[in-house]
Write a structure and sequence with these properties.
This protein has 231 residues and is mostly helical. It has 3 helices and 3 strands; from the N terminus they run E-E-E-H-H-H. The chain has a 3-stranded antiparallel beta sheet.
């Protein structure tokens, strides 16, 4: 139209490749009663069949266009659903990223806590080893002391046996000691009696001195000797 040729390609099926386009000027036709006369070959051209075939092709292409439109709509809906799914997937991915970040923070805190616990465990283990060494040394020292005490006990036992063997008869010694104790008691009683006699004699002497100077000392001596000799 108006000296302009517009060539429009619409894909129907597949991906066809155009190798070349040739444009020629159509010859002028003389149309009479639905027929045309070709000036080159003077042949009659029946336009009725051409129009019928053209209408069939048009209806066929319209059906194909409708099918393609329905397919396009279906694909558009599928794309929309896929896009919605992608959006939901992105939201879920964002949520998972947030959870992953939180889990990472929790893991970091757990690693820090584990590090602290490991440090405390190392300190406890070191303290245990030090205490173990101290207790081992103390136990060894105690074993040595117990061994020395056992040796001393053995020596004391031997000395006790020697002492027991050196004493001929312990029962006789006990009886002798008891006899000495009884003798000491008798001597104590006699000593007390003698002290009473001496007090009596002293009192008599004092009384004798008070009775007068006429009594001679020989008489006093005689009385003293008599009192001492009396039982």
């Amino acid at each position: 139209m108006n000296g302009v040729i517009m060539v429009n390609f619409k894909g129907v099926r597949g991906s066809p490749m155009v190798c070349g386009i040739c444009i020629r000027k159509a010859p002028r036709l003389t149309v009479t009663d639905g027929n045309a006369l070709c000036k080159r070959c003077s042949a009659d051209i029946d336009f009725s069949n051409t129009q019928t075939r053209t209408s069939k092709l048009i209806s066929k292409y319209e059906k194909q266009i409708e099918e393609l439109t329905s397919q396009c709509t279906m694909k558009t809906n599928e794309c929309y659903m896929a896009w919605s799914s992608v959006d939901s997937t992105n939201l879920e991915l964002g949520r998972l990223k947030i959870e992953l970040h939180q889990k990472g923070a929790e893991i970091d805190s757990l690693e820090q806590a584990l590090g602290r616990e490991s440090g405390q465990l190392r300190n406890v283990s070191q303290k245990y080893e030090n205490d173990k060494k101290l207790w081992t040394a103390a136990i060894s020292n105690l074993k040595r002391k117990i061994k020395a005490m056992k040796q001393e006990q053995a020596l004391l036992s031997l000395e006790a046996h020697d002492c027991a063997n050196a004493i001929p008869d312990l029962s006789k010694m006990i009886a002798a000691v008891q006899a000495l104790v009884a003798q000491c008691e008798d001597l104590k009683l006699k000593y007390n009696e003698e002290m009473d006699k001496r007090k009596k004699l002293h009192n008599i002497v004092q009384e004798t001195k008070g009775m007068g100077k006429g009594i001679c000392w020989d008489t006093a001596s005689f009385i003293l000797v008599t009192l001492l000799a009396s039982p």
